[in-house]
């Protein structure tokens, strides 16, 4: 992993209004998030549904406009910049492969749209580039004449990846890119993404709710909960020594073929239905945390580095987990 910064996010905020009329109020989806993604790495962003990870991924691409905060891409402030010239460098692979492909267009035409958006090519150059991309994502040439509904879910997602690669990006957001696929296809797509990253020197923000998938593909892992970052660190550190109670909860949900391989015991605080409301004060995780006390309910914990880039936002993590 390079020390060169690809994307720097500073104090990013995005809220959506809940309710109607005068009774509507802003609900934070991304709340004061700051982090850095380095060139050539895969940062895994994970958390339960509704934690804000997809909103974060789309906001850093400015597919959704942030309420406040700053975004820097390769040192350039893009918070208010014209994004059209940057779209070639920053792309996304969507969660629902079928829903992201135009059902009225042939696969070849879908990928050619991206190729032609990246420059002016002769007909032969277009064909050569199309075949190169189809081959790169592990599909056969005859796929180009088919429609999306004629493909399996795994094939559709490969087309989505080829479309994203058509403009030769440097940074790719993979938004739950394998969650709609069965286990065998998940492994194939993850391995494909790793091969493409190595060949094309890409940088990934890999969004998922599946800890097993994230730890396999990621160099670092970022844990989000109700719009806040709870923990951030190297994958090996997060897996071997998680500091935040929420990370322990997520890891306790991992299924193992051999139960003796479990590193984290079942979390004691999950016997009742989870409270996902955002508290007015204190730690976001307080309602579900078995270790929460008055300090946790009063003060927002500081997001601190506990050594070697392992960050955590918890008042009691050192006392509990060492």
Quickly give the structural class. Answer: alpha/beta
- Beta-strand segment tally: 12
**With helices defined by DSSP (H or I, 4 residues minimum), what is the helix count?**
10
Unreliably modeled segments: none
Structure description:
The chain has ten helices and twelve strands. By secondary structure, the protein is α/β, with parallel strands linked by helices. The chain has one domain (5-89, 169-321): 3-Layer(aba) Sandwich (Rossmann fold). Helix 2 (107-117) crosses helix 3 (123-136) and helix 2 runs parallel beside helix 4 (153-165). The protein is globular and about 70 Å long.
What's the gist of this structure?
30% of the residues lie in helices and 23% in strands.
Based on the model shown, name its key terms:
10 helices, 30% helix, alpha/beta, 8-stranded mixed beta sheet, 322 residues
Helix and strand topology:
Blueprint: E1 5-18, E2 25-38, E3 42-46, H1 53-60, E4 68-73, E5 76-77, E6 90-93, H2 107-117, H3 123-136, H4 153-165, E7 171-175, H5 183-200, E8 203-208, H6 211-217, E9 220-225, E10 228-234, H7 235-240, H8 245-252, H9 294-298, E11 303-305, E12 311-313, H10 317-321
């Amino acid at each position: 992993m390079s020390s060169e910064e690809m994307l720097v996010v500073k104090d990013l905020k995005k809220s959506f209004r809940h309710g109607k009329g005068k009774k509507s109020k802003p609900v934070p989806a991304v709340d004061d998030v700051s982090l850095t993604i380095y060139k050539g790495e895969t940062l895994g962003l994970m958390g339960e549904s509704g934690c804000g990870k997809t909103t974060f991924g789309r906001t850093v691409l400015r597919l959704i406009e942030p309420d406040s905060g700053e975004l820097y891409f390769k040192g350039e402030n893009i918070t208010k910049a014209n994004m059209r010239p940057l779209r070639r460098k920053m792309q996304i692979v969507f969660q629902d492969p079928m829903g992201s492909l135009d059902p009225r267009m042939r696969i070849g035409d879908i990928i050619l749209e991206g190729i032609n958006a990246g420059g002016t090519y002769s007909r032969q150059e277009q064909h050569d580039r199309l075949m190169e991309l189809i081959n790169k994502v592990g599909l056969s040439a005859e796929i180009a004449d088919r429609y999306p509904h004629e493909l399996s879910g795994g094939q559709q997602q490969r087309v989505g990846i080829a479309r994203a690669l058509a403009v030769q990006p440097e940074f790719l957001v993979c938004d739950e890119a394998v969650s709609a696929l069965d286990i065998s296809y998940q492994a194939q797509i993850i391995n494909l993404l790793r091969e493409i990253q190595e060949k094309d020197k890409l940088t990934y923000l890999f969004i998922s709710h599946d800890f097993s998938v994230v730890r396999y593909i990621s160099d670092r892992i970022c844990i989000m909960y109700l719009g806040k970052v709870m923990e951030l660190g190297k994958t090996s550190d997060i897996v071997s020594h998680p500091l935040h109670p929420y990370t322990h909860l997520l890891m306790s949900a991992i299924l193992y073929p051999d139960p003796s391989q479990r590193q984290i015991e079942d979390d004691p605080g999950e016997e009742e239905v989870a409270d996902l409301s955002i508290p007015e004060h204190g730690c976001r995780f307080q309602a579900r945390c078995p270790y929460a006390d008055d300090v946790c309910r009063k003060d927002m914990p500081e997001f601190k580095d506990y050594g070697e880039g392992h960050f955590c936002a918890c008042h009691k993590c050192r006392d509990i987990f060492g």
